[in-house]
Amino acid sequence: MSSTADATKSVPPPPPPPPQPAHVPNSNLAHMNPLPPSVFTLPQTAQLEALYTIIRDKETSRGDFLFYSDRIIRLLVEEGLNHLPVVARTVETPTGATYNGVGFEGKICGVSILRAGEAMEAGLREVCRSVRIGKILIQRDEETTLPKLFYSKFPQDIAQRYVLLLDPMLATGGSAIKAVEVLMDHGVPEERIIFINLIAAPEGLTTFTKRFPSLKVITGWIDEGLNDKAYIIPGLGDFGERRQVSFFYFP
Ligand code: URA
User: Which residue spans adopt a coiled-coil conformation according to this UniProt entry (predicted)?
Assistant: First the structure.
């Protein structure tokens, strides 16, 4: 026998991989079935679920939490932009040919719900160069326990823009509803607001979509529900704390 054959014989083949539980795509959508027609989720792929698994893991470092939550935010922003209306636009290409394409119809701006929403601003700026961004701070009123507006700053022509409203965690829906009310008070019609969200609880999503049925919601994942402290379950804990968002920036 040749020495090559001997060597082959002496190396045992690697053991077969252990059986993996079957991945059930879209299983989380059963938490809200049927989905309200105004709600759009990211494609529920295994890759997306892997990204969510990393950011949900309490052992994930802050660096990884930032990196992987930013990846999901980028996907969400891109999906949000898919819902903006376009108009016909014809251009001439360098070959001298004419291309009948489309262009975005109107101006946009982002509005982040402080503090956690601020973490989504960079993702929006990455894809929309020099986009205007407004801010809104809503907190629970100590006396009434209702969400109360503490601060807002918007582009002065916000009523003429499409608004991408940014808040990563939709729990009870109280802050998001208040934020939309404030935007509508500034003249932005409900249909021109797109709410962009990382994780939604069915309770908050139901309340929000019943209140604003023609406002589109783009969410990455619908979780099981809320605990008695209004944290999303399984969730990822306190988003602001995980990212260590430690200051407000009031321009
Ligand atoms: N805000 C968070 O950061 N996490 C939750 O689970 C709910 C609201």
Answer: none
- Closest listed residue to residue 80, CA positions, set 109, 55, 52: 109
Residue of 112, 229, 233, 236 best suited for mutating to test ligand 1, as the one with most atoms within 8 Å of CB: 236
Atom in ligand 1 nearest the alpha carbon of residue 230: 7
- Please give the Cα distance from 202 to 140 (Å, whole number): 21
How far apart CA 159 and CA 157 sit, in angstroms, is 5
Taking the CA atoms of residue 122, residue 125, residue 131 and residue 132 in that order, the dihedral angle to the nearest 10 degrees is 0
Domains defined for the chain, CATH in brackets: 43-243 (3.40.50.2020)
Which protein residues are within 6 Å of ligand 1, measured from CB? Answer: 116, 169, 171, 231-232, 235, 238-240
- Please state the pTM of the whole predicted model: 0.88
Distance CA 22, CA 20 (A): 6
Best residue for ligand 1 mutational test, from 198, 199, 231 (most atoms within 8 Å of Cβ): 231
CB neighbours of 81 closer than 8 A, spacing ≥ 6? 127, 128
From 81, 69, 80, 68, select the one nearest 41 (Cα to Cα): 80
Q: How do residues 3-58 score in pLDDT, each as one tens digit? A: 555 555 688 888 888 877 666 666 778 888 889 999 999 999 999 999 999 999 99
